[in-house]
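User: Sequence in, structure out. Go.
Assistant: Echoing your sequence, followed by the structure tokens.
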Amino acid sequence: MPWLPPWVILAAHVAHGLSWSVLLGLFATGQGAASFAAFAWPHLAGLAWLTTLSLGVLCHVIPGFLDVRIPAERFARAMMLVTWLGGLLLAAGFWWGRADLLPWAGTVAMAGLVGAGVPLAIGIASPPAEPDPDPAPLVPAFLFVLCALLVAAGLGTYLAAALAGKAFLSFPLAAVAAGHAHLAVGGWLTLLVMGVSTRTLRRILGAPPAARHGLVSALLSVGALLLGFAWLAPWPLAAQAGAAFAGAGALLYAFDTG
């Protein structure tokens, strides 16, 4: 296997370029950030670009960090391209106002994420070839971000069906959309970047390990969960509490990593 899956990385950067084209198109057509077409951008940038790229990178860093083997790795890499295709289809549905396309696109993206995420999770949870003297933060952290990704994808699949009038449950769309966004951006991408950078940045700089990494991860995880599921909570301050936890974790991360 190559160091990074080349076709996955290439596909992700194609989506990166397309995401800029969408921003330029929104500007040229005068469509605002709240327009239906504007939702094409986060699905190109967040799903087809950053998530596809991150999953490809995880194929490399997980065996190196945890000394484990990812089962069905070729299949997982192929499903990353399915994830990318789902992101493109979602973006196309939003850009051209084709709500009827969204459930199919969401299903493709969900299938790709499950097909890529489950082998990664199995590899993470498997015992290492040699015991790691400091394994505690890594395994639960990787599993948490993958779970956040899959739950965010599930909420997104529901939203895609609801926008096409095919949802089988009745939830407030704005609240579910907020949960979807918070889990995808906060619980998945932000925590993943912060966790990997905490593991690698200080080593690159020759600095000692971050002293409060566990506390940072805990604060950010609780914040992401509260923000992601505030729409289900019976008390009105759940979202505010989530923002407070996430903000405290981000500030502590900045001081602990710097």
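User: And one key feature?
Assistant: The radius of gyration is 19 Å.
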